[in-house]
Amino acid sequence: MRSTATIGTSAILLALTYLGFVSAQTFQRLGTCPSLGCVFPPDQTEFLAGQLFDIRLEVHAPVNGSEASSGGVPDENFTFCIQSGKGGCQDVTKYFQVQDSSIEKWSFSYYEDLFAKDAGTPIVVNVASKAYRALSLSKPGAYTAKLVYNGGFQTVANWVVREPATRRKAKNVLFFIGDGMTQPMITAARLIAHKSINGKYQSLMQMDQMEALGHQMTHSIDSFITDSANSATALYTGKKSTVNTLNVWADSSANSLDDPKVETIAELFRRHIGGALGIVSTAYIADATPAALCAHTRDRGQYVTVVTEYLTSAEAVNSTFAWPTSCKQPDVIFGGGAEQFFPGRGSPNGTDYYQAFRDKGYNVVLSNTELQATSSKAKTLGIFSVGNLAKWIDRNVLKENLKGQRNSPTGDGTDALDQPGLKEMTLKAIDILQARTKRNEGWFMMSEAASIDKMMHALDYDRALGELLELDDTIRASIAHLKKIGELDNTLIVVTADHGHGFDVFGGADTKYLSAQTTDRKKRAAVGTYGESGLSGYTVTEGALPTNNTIVFGAEGPNFPVTWNPRYAYAAGFGANPDRRENYKLHTTGPRLPAVSSPDGYVANPNDNPDGFNAPGTLGPDEGQGVHSLQDVSVFASGPGSEAFRGVYNSIDIFFKIADALALGRTSR
Amino acid sequence: MRSTATIGTSAILLALTYLGFVSAQTFQRLGTCPSLGCVFPPDQTEFLAGQLFDIRLEVHAPVNGSEASSGGVPDENFTFCIQSGKGGCQDVTKYFQVQDSSIEKWSFSYYEDLFAKDAGTPIVVNVASKAYRALSLSKPGAYTAKLVYNGGFQTVANWVVREPATRRKAKNVLFFIGDGMTQPMITAARLIAHKSINGKYQSLMQMDQMEALGHQMTHSIDSFITDSANSATALYTGKKSTVNTLNVWADSSANSLDDPKVETIAELFRRHIGGALGIVSTAYIADATPAALCAHTRDRGQYVTVVTEYLTSAEAVNSTFAWPTSCKQPDVIFGGGAEQFFPGRGSPNGTDYYQAFRDKGYNVVLSNTELQATSSKAKTLGIFSVGNLAKWIDRNVLKENLKGQRNSPTGDGTDALDQPGLKEMTLKAIDILQARTKRNEGWFMMSEAASIDKMMHALDYDRALGELLELDDTIRASIAHLKKIGELDNTLIVVTADHGHGFDVFGGADTKYLSAQTTDRKKRAAVGTYGESGLSGYTVTEGALPTNNTIVFGAEGPNFPVTWNPRYAYAAGFGANPDRRENYKLHTTGPRLPAVSSPDGYVANPNDNPDGFNAPGTLGPDEGQGVHSLQDVSVFASGPGSEAFRGVYNSIDIFFKIADALALGRTSR
After folding, report:
1. Which residues of A are known binding-site members for Zn(2+)?
2. What residue of B is the nearest CA neighbor of A533?
3. Do A28 and B503 touch (CB under 8 A)?
4. Of B407, B434, B461, which residue is a domain's last?
5. Which of A300, B306, B482, B588 has CB 3.0 to 4.6 Å from B488, enough for a Cys bridge?
């Protein structure tokens, strides 16, 4: 809902373009700046001692609307000072011993509300700004930062540098993210993959058995629903931010690379400890959750910037904005997204970016076979398909669906038939990180089950639960592998999500009966609730009635369903969804497409579940997928430092807990 | 889906009536009995050492269908033996030193599936049975119970008596149940009642601050969705059971009082310790969650039985079935449900049941004023309205809604205008229980926020969150009060739910814009997702745009919303719902009625949210409300013994953890 245009010294509005949001509620001028003077880092920011960050100051002069002021000319003579302890407030240049920076100016516009948008009457805001780059605070305690503008108006930001841990508890950190994974999904996955007799589970999810259980709050800095970029920023930097941002606070300028940056856990680990770093995801590797370990941009969609930052640094991406730290070429990068690597429209400057990685000493592998065969001694880039990797169900149960995708990571238009799963990637990554740990510096790995989220967006909950079960299986296998190589007791394992999707199982559906009915309302009567929900049809052989003595153990191997498409299926619903058709069956021919566009916006896809009933949604006509939700997500942890992950806390605390386990804070008093 | 009829010695079917379930999935012959020989307690049962239970054995002979056998004549010569350790299998009469019991016989019928139901072709089953009453096992370890029938067929039940705690940790137990409360609801309640600045909450829910966090699985013994009777049975007895049961395993007989019973935490506490007992609920006091502390019946709808068991005992209710323990007249009974007490159709034999309580030494109070004024020294019955008590929002914000209800607990048809809330009842209950603790025996109280569930059933999520916030406020006030009277360190406080409702917040709605649009799809576009969800409109003054500097502190008192009906409201959805109309506004004239019956089943109530959009549901036409869901629910605990509540476990484990904190196990070796 925001458009920005960098302008020269003139306060005249030069250009305004509007992003294409059709549905919207609160249109804020700038979420973290409720007054006309903006300070980034904003009020309430907490830092790890020594963590690098940029300062951005803005003074807004709205040209029109209820906040119109100063004739639309922003004050350029603002001052900014910082106070710690009982001393006075020192000018920013003196406090940090830096040169003053020059004034930048631009304009942006926004709509006050949906009525204004319908009427086409935007508010225009002119801005004067300064930025100070790559600073840090290393004395624990409280700080007050004060912007004075417009002849005496003040914006005060209270900052805190937390007292860091001084003793390192964990040599290694294995950080699993189940993207979009909620407790209702974990409960549903347990139902379909684990055998229960008379209400007693005979086996449990690995997550159920971790040493510590916590909850974290996922909301954004300026809205209560987050996206994955924003939430990953919170997990990796300890800073709440805005939807679509990667490790920056969103300013109002048009340039998405000039927003004030903050240092990530990966950068801190590289800078202070120099240990091995691994990034593993079942998404395209420039997607938000992996990207957020290394990239800094207002716009998560800048995939070329992201892969460039993997290989080089933020400073190299745009030399205007000094940023002296980086991920320094992660030892392991495994995922999809080959379109950013083979020469073409998606790769940096159209170059062969596989070759660029080889030139920097990387082994490059493009299939599971190559992955398993490659040496563990070298830095390794593994890219296994165009776009997101195949889903567990399609790789293991419905293998025909891998064909005809023309998604080979070579870019030659053949099919990527030999893809690893999260488990194969993660176990190999452990071996490489371990081999590249020369002394006792240890390693840090983020491993993401990305398609829990992606399949929930598609309302394809069977596939989403397959991905969730693969994550659980990966955790189980990783624990066994770490134990085998003698590193389990040295490794903090943390499992969490970045946000939720409204989803819950509410009954059992007789899919045969549903399919046989001719009216929507009669089809809906195929669902049994309460006592008639019945038992899990997924733990019995195909065609069997689910009862307490038809349970089968281990046909697909333990910890996965025996039957994926039973007559008696679970019936689940969503917090919000586009119009759809529903029959509660597995989508056997590939991921679901619930809605298709029409002149009237998205409508139910008539080819999705044609034997189902029509189920109109609640989302606006511009939304063809499910959306993220508010609920707290679970945190599971084991190993040294895991006790800190118990209880209820904010998403940003995950960063501080991991940083403390690794003793990454650097103080001076 | 089951009908039962007790019959004489004949195997001929005498009468079959069908319960009115229209939608259903799995129709099991008898959930806990997948073979033709049934053992109660069933396989996988775990006992507290010394806990009383009944044994029920059944042999089934289906007359028709795929299981038809023995010409429909059930084997009456079955045998049943019990083996512990390495000894042989001893006949039940010898093992327990009891007389053999006589054969009972009956028939029941069920439908194999929905096709059979549509065709009107039930399966008829004839049954031969025996029961043995009020037994116990006091040696920890594994047991094998074996039923042999039909000339050699076996049903084996594995039982375990858990090793109990020997040291008592807690003097008092305060057990809070938020009926139907899930983590997504807790997250939503935090959003509307607590102030967040730039993503940092300035205050937290009391639940967020408890010492221990856990998750519990709520599924039934024979279906994956539970009701509140069944789940309360799990929490209070450590035994999974069937929908609608209170502290029995569901057998197949018609008599709902002859099902095999099991002893509750309240009965154990009374029998072994003799401490004070309190039952508090915002529901009618014969409702499942309070009733399950003391009652034993297959049918939670037997309200007269329930209130009779409060005052007398299970044995007195039906002297045929020996049950030698009871709640022995709880010291505190506070709630609604006056229709079971004033003389009339709902009271036991039409008598004045208030007087019956007075005759047993109870003080009886019928308003908050009387409650606060009454002595803390006597047993006290407090009944404050017909049906469920008023909701927090109506008692505190929309007080006009209390009028015209004609729900006075006196039964005189006037309004119950002077009702206490959960906090007032719970704090007074603490005082009474404390005053009635003569020595060091301590007390046990269950306090239920019942209408979280009831309002979620009605899709009235604003009222549900009001009830949830009242629960949180009650916990906070209880902790403060216990501290004041010096009992906090002696008291284990446990907070949990009995099941979920699919519910989650997915965005923010501009209700003014929604109301102003003329088409359903345009109304749906009033919802903003992700960054356009905005900030909480509930923490700013009426009419203010929610931003980080319009936040107001404490207008309604801390920990409740400042504004309940803001222009920018949260938008929430359900896992499943009946057809409804939606506008995301507070229902200002009283609890919501989302659907009304029609010749075609339930349809959206045209008078509910007339300015909203039409939102068809997914539930069958017979369902006019929201339904329960699968998700694990949270457990929060503080005080002595609370560390045991960390992690992920089954609902039945709550019983064992509380029993261990009170050292209620009684072993003999």
Report:
1. 179, 453, 457, 498-499, 628
2. B223
3. no
4. B461
5. B482
> Is B611 annotated as belonging to a binding site?
no
Q: Which helix (H) or strand (E) holds B58?
A: strand B53-62
Output the pLDDT for position B22: 33
Q: How far is A482 from A15, CA to CA, in rounded Å?
A: 56
At A120, is the secondary structure helix, strand, or coil?
Answer: coil
Domain shared by B39 and B156, yes or no: yes
**Interface contact B506-A220, CB threshold 8 A:** no
A227/B570 touch (CB, cutoff 8 Å), yes or no: no
pLDDT number for residue B26: 62
Confidence of residue A322 (pLDDT cuts 50, 70, 90): confident
pLDDT at A600 over 80: yes
Query: What is the spatial distance between Cα B468 and Cα B282, in angstroms, rounded to a whole number?
Result: 12
Query: Could you tell me if A482 and A430 lie in one domain?
Result: yes
State both tokens at B479. 């902790």
CA distance A533 to A505: 10
Burial environment of residue B116 by CB neighbours within 10 A (0 to 12, 13 to 18, 19 or more): middle
| Higher-scoring residue by pLDDT: A35, A555 | A35
Residue B9 has pLDDT above 60, yes or no: no
Q: Is A376 considered catalytic here?
A: no
Amino acid at B293: L
Residues A246 and A337 in one domain: yes
Dihedral sign (CA A473, A479, A481, A482): positive
Which residue out of A70, A107, A129, A228 is catalytically annotated?
A228
Q: How far is CA B347 from CA B121, B127, B296, B525, in A?
A: 39, 34, 18, 51
Q: Is the predicted pLDDT of residue A466 greater than 90, yes or no? A: yes
Per-chain mean pLDDT for chain A: 93
Q: Over the stretch B553-583, which tens digit does the pLDDT of each residue have? A: 654 557 899 999 999 999 999 999 999 999 9
| Residue A2 scores a pLDDT above 50 | no
Q: What percent of chain B has pLDDT over 70?
A: 95
B245 is a domain residue = yes
Residue B101, pLDDT score: 96
- Closest-CA distance, A418 to chain B, in angstroms, reads 36
Are residues A532 and B21, on separate chains, in Cβ contact within 8 Å? yes
> Which residue in this structure is represented by tokens 């989650």?
B504
* Residue B423 shares a structural domain with residue B543: no
Candidates B525, B630, B647; nearest CB to A191: B630
**b/e burial code for range B210-243 (CB count within 10 A of at least 16 → b):** bebbbbbbbbbbbbbbbbbbbbbbbbbbbbbbbb
Which of B35, B200, B528 lies nearest to residue A44, judging by beta carbons? B200
Strand-strand pairing, B172-178 and B153-162: unpaired
DSSP state of A30: S
Residue A186 to residue B652, Cβ atoms within 8 A: no
A625, part of any domain: no
- Per annotation, catalytic residue among B228, B253, B408, B651: B228
Cα B639 to Cα B279, B490, B564: the distances in Å are 20, 7, 34
Judgement on whether residues B441 and B515 belong to the same structural domain of the protein: no
Strand ranges inside B362-456, DSSP E: 363-365, 380-383, 443-449
Residues 6+ apart with CB under 8 A from B522: none
Task: For residue B147, name the pLDDT band (cuts at 50, 70, 90).
Answer: very high
Q: Check: CB of residue B293 under 8 Å from CB of residue B43.
A: no
In a domain, B142, yes or no: yes
What pLDDT does residue A553 have? 63
Q: Is the peptide bond before A74 cis (omega within 30 degrees of 0)?
A: no
Element (H, E) at B469: helix B461-484
- Residue A184's SS3 state is helix
Chain B contact set for A516 (CB, 8 A): 115
Residue of B18, B26, B111 to mutate, interface with A, max A Cβ within 10 Å: B26
